[in-house]
Amino acid sequence: MPAVRPAETVAVAEDYLHERGPTLESTHPLALGPVTAPPHTVDGFVKEFLRELNYGQGVPLSRSSLNDQYMALARTVRGYLTARWLETATRRRQSPHKMVGYLSAEYLLGRQLDNALLATDLSAIAEEAMKVCGLELDALRQAEVEPGLGNGGLGRLAACFIDSLATMDAPCVGYGIRYEYGIFKQTFVDGRQVEVPDNWLSMGGPWEIAHPEMEVPVHFGGHVERATADDGRERCTWVPDWSVLGIRYNVMVPGYQNGVVNTLRLWRAIATRAFDLDIFNAGDYASAVRSQTVAENISKVLYPEDSTPQGKELRLQQQYFFVACSIFDFLKHTQPTDLDVRELPERIIFQLNDTHPVIGIPELMRLLIDDYDLTFEEAWAITKQCFAYTCHTLLPEALEVWPVSLMERLLPRHMEIIYQINEVFLAEVREQFPGDELRVRRMSIIGDHPERSVRMAHLATVASVKVNGVAELHSQLLRDKVLADFSEMWPEKFTNVTNGVTPRRFVRQANPFLSKLITDTIGVGWVANLERVRELETYAEDPEFRAKFREVKAANKTRIAAVLERRDGILLPEDHLLDVMVKRLHEYKRQMLKLLHIVTLYEGIISGDLDPATVTPRTVVFGAKAAPGYRMAKEIIFLINSVASVINNDPRVQGKLFIAFPANYNVTLAERLIPAADLSEQISLAGKEASGTGNMKFALNGALTIGTDDGANVEIRKLVGDDNFFLFGMTEPEVADLQARGYRPTEYYESNEKLRRAINLIDSGHFTGGNREAASMVIGDLLYNDRFLVLADYQAYLDAQAEVEAAYADQEAWSRSAILNVARTGFFSSDRSMRDYINRIWHIQTGF
């Protein structure tokens, strides 16, 4: 057992008293003593590190492995956070105020060590302490495995938001699922994506603290029984078929050098009866642990593939599991035992991060009615004040619906409550819009086609105090198109909060070269007040500063080249324009438009139409995963890799064109790639991207954007100026008009020679070893479907890329534009996003 420090003893005693009640003497001096962190000295750090290594890992330094050393270092840093974490919790219990319960199925945190060192201002001390021990901090950084708790932008956004809330000293608990296997590790086999399990916990999770004694029962299936009580009211009892237990794991979320540490609480599912000894003794070993297997499936893997009925059911189980655990945890463990639930709206606002947690609405209703004995009317009045909903999409297929048959079988009591909510709601609709039964059908929480289903976005909108989009354009389209009937009924309910990213991770930590230049130029303080980077604007006119800025970009290019060579065996050419497109592989994001541009450049050079001397040397970096069941996206990945293989080995374009597609793009790679980029590709079809956050990260790190007027691109362009943004493509109204008139992609193919030659070259099998069938699915879809108007925007995109090449030829002007991108995008800090949520939606206090 590791030696227990006095501070740890105090922490354990204090936590035990809070969670289990006064089972220890409340006057015990140890229980009342102060919680203190280890000393902030190199010697103190070395002692704590060696203690964790010896007693935590059970090895001396001389025989320790790299993982032993990393685990000991992580726990040492965690020890510095723990005292602050408990002090934060104690302060908030002593002065309770309304808090935020952030409900999100994803949190893409990235590596935690550097973030914790930055937050605690221990980076220099830790580096020196490791040198004293004969170790290199950089080597230990590389040993950390990134937590696989998210798919993409939704999870990265949630991670940014909880970081900002801690930095702002806002009372918040983030709630989610502790997936045993995160988003898959992507590998390429013969150019095709192959998914490999991401067992990110295999070497241990030093940043989490388990509390198995704080288990939460979660029920499924069964039926509902009714009885009339003495007061004449009907009472309902849910009699479930089976149950699991939720075990909570706390992850500390430190604020930036402010002594505040909030909590991310993740839930793991285990069986209520994990092992049946009688069955085991009878020889049926598999059946003896079957209940454990079924239960643990719930938190086994991030977002099970849901193209099968079994996958859909497991995904719904996941969603209900984590919100049931979270709401129970808040009511039973976070709040005082004498809480009057009628005061709940004064104590909590649950933020629904997309539709995944929306089942929490009927769950809170169930608890208030069945456990706290409120009437439906009382429970509904309370619930409508306790939720707010963020919609992250404009794609109808991304708005979740659940078959009524599945809901009735898996969550019968909740389905009853949803029916009641819908009945009350539709009565309001009929009262406000009498005689408009078509509107009633459109707005109903229960949809009829193609099967009876629960529309989760409708339920969230009906039950939430506010509904927000995540960029100005997105919020407008949400009001005008996606949820138009609801915004007409409740215009005051809809608002906008433009997304943001944390400057701690995505500037200060990801780009130390630029961070030093900023600090040397405008001083300290900008990391927690990103609007201060506006002070850099005047330096864009300074030739000496522009030269330093170019040195920063060159250093970042050297760094990413080393990373990709070590990580993937990719040798990046030097002195190229670095053109980057990294995001989930989805047709609306239009990776195919980027690929057609590459093929056009290539075809022009090999055909002799383009003089190679006039072509700007360009390296294009893709990073993208396709959902396992998304066939078209996988075919596009294969085609990108096929084109890369040919172009990268064709001597006719060497020194002019190169494609890199490193597998398994994640936060860790993003932190190295984004600071090196010259050009940021944000080329989704207008009206399809909700916001984007990658576009913000690139601009903040000095890349210029080529993009459509879509999502947060609109706001980026307004802030940086048209001269510092390469705009192309149709606007959202123009897209809608073209689709309404009847879009024929073949007309664009036939009328544009460059487009025709690029598509014909792909279709000929040139990039697929002569196999014309290999690309037929992608080419056929482009020519006869092209849902996202790739061909319609092709020429405008080529014209904008010509502008890019002309601009890049003047490095002084390009540097000026890049500096202005940094200086004018401080608005996109997640700290500003959180202030908007606090002021417009949550109405909570900070810093108390």
In short:
48% of the residues lie in helices and 14% in strands. It is α/β, with parallel strands linked by helices. A hairpin with a 5-residue loop joins strand 13 (446-447) and strand 14 (453-455).
Describe the structure.
Helix 13 (360-371) packs across helix 14 and helix 24 (591-607) packs across helix 33. The chain folds into three domains: 6-95 and 112-142, no CATH class; 153-499 and 835-842, Rossmann fold, CATH 3.40.50; 510-828, Rossmann fold. Helices cover 48% and strands 14% of the residues. It has a nine-stranded mixed sheet. By secondary structure, it is α/β, with parallel strands linked by helices. Helix 27 links the parallel strand 20 and strand 21 (704-707). It is globular, with a radius of gyration of 28 Å. It is built from 35 helices and 22 strands.
Record keyword descriptors for this entry.
Rossmann fold, 35 helices, globular, six-stranded parallel sheet, 22 strands, about 15% strand, alpha/beta, 3 domains, single chain, disordered N terminus, about 850 residues, nine-stranded mixed sheet
What is the terminal-to-terminal distance? 38 Å
What is the fold named in CATH at topology level of the largest domain? Rossmann fold
Taken together, the total number of domains comes to: 3
CATH class of the largest domain: Alpha Beta
Which overall shape is indicated by the principal axes computed on the Cα atoms?
A: globular
| Gross CATH architecture of the largest domain | 3-Layer(aba) Sandwich
> How much helix is in the residues?
40-55%
Main sheet: strand order = 5-8-9-2-1-10-11-15-16
Provide mean pLDDT, rounded: 93
DSSP strand content: 5-15%
Largest sheet: 9 strands, mixed
CATH superfamily of the largest domain: Glycogen Phosphorylase B
Q: Mind telling me the C-alpha Rg?
A: 28 Å
Number of strands: 22
